[in-house]
Write a structure and sequence with these properties.
The protein has a single domain, classed as Beta-lactamase (3-Layer(aba) Sandwich), CATH 3.40.710. Helix content is 29%, strand content 17%. It is built from ten helices and 15 strands. The strands form four sheets. The chain has an eight-stranded antiparallel sheet. A three-stranded mixed sheet has the order 6-5-15, with no helix packed on it. The protein has a two-stranded antiparallel sheet with strand order 4-7. Strand 10 and strand 11 form a beta hairpin. Helix 2 crosses helix 6. It is globular, with a radius of gyration of 19 Å.
Amino acid sequence: MSGFPTDFPKTFAAIEAGRAHGLHSGAQVYISRAGQTLTDAAVGESRPGVPMTPDSIMMWFSAGKPVTAVAIARLWEGGRLDLDDPVVRFIPEFAARGKETITLRHLLTHTAGVRWVEWSQSWEEMIARICKAPIELRWIPGQTAGYHAFTSWYLLGEIIRRLDAQHRSFDQFVADEIFESTGMTDCAFAMPVERYRSYGDRIAPIQITNRSKGHPAFFDTEAGCSVSSPGGSARGPARQLGRFYEMLLNRGGKILTPQTTEAITARHRAGLQDLTFKHIIDWGLGFIINSAQYNQPTLPYAFGPHASQRTFGHGGNQSSIALADPEYGLAVALVFNGMPGEEAHQRRMRNVLTGLYEDVGVNSKFE
């Protein structure tokens, strides 16, 4: 344990336990409170023989979804859209097969009913496939809930692209409007191969570790780095993802007004069973809201037993989580470079978050 922050013994003991069991070979940890950095650390190796550092570039997967939600919120603030606008106002072809009533709010709260289409690397093909897809059988938009891993997020990205007065791609819009203004200069949803190569050993590829021999996830390869998925391809150092949540704790900083920040991180979907995750999960507008009050021991992508009721954030596929806890002023970003399967990951993350809150010295009634 030498070299690890001595103020966080439980946090790093849990991370080391996962490393010893082969769940990951390295991790990044960023924690701040009231805007003051408590730890900005890296553990283990990013790849064989290469130390993980706080500057390593790591995949966030779905932990990047809130960035897309904030991009939509900027357009909402600017009067370019309303959250209850139907998607067809911006993407007319989406009306096919009974989807006319689906709104942006439904997309952001995972209540739209278009969870699955065959995935393609082509942005244009993805939009076409989602537009041609039917709404799910017996699905009532706004009342039936189920996590949409990528489909609704492509629609949000396409709306951003079509509304941008500068005709920027989704990736460029986010880079200009959010990443640059928040000091997230090493973050991207997609990057040219040349930029990917320029990072050299700073690239810390995530390995799928629930098999006998790990192999990198697609988005975290040279071939996949230039493919954009607004719901799943974001990457960067954990500290910069932490800055995103510090911005939200700071009432939107330079990105959003305090009123908009409060609106998107409030509870908009409450008490609904999620048909994808098979648990009751509450949602803001693009953010998971702490759902510990439902007493579900196996709740996936949760914030641990000590997080306050107002905590919001998002997890990434078997690998990461980032959150803001307004009651305690905490911003946290945790990223592991191993995807060990859902059960092992949920246990790993719960152990680390439990230790983290105990190391910080706070807890809530959800113990």
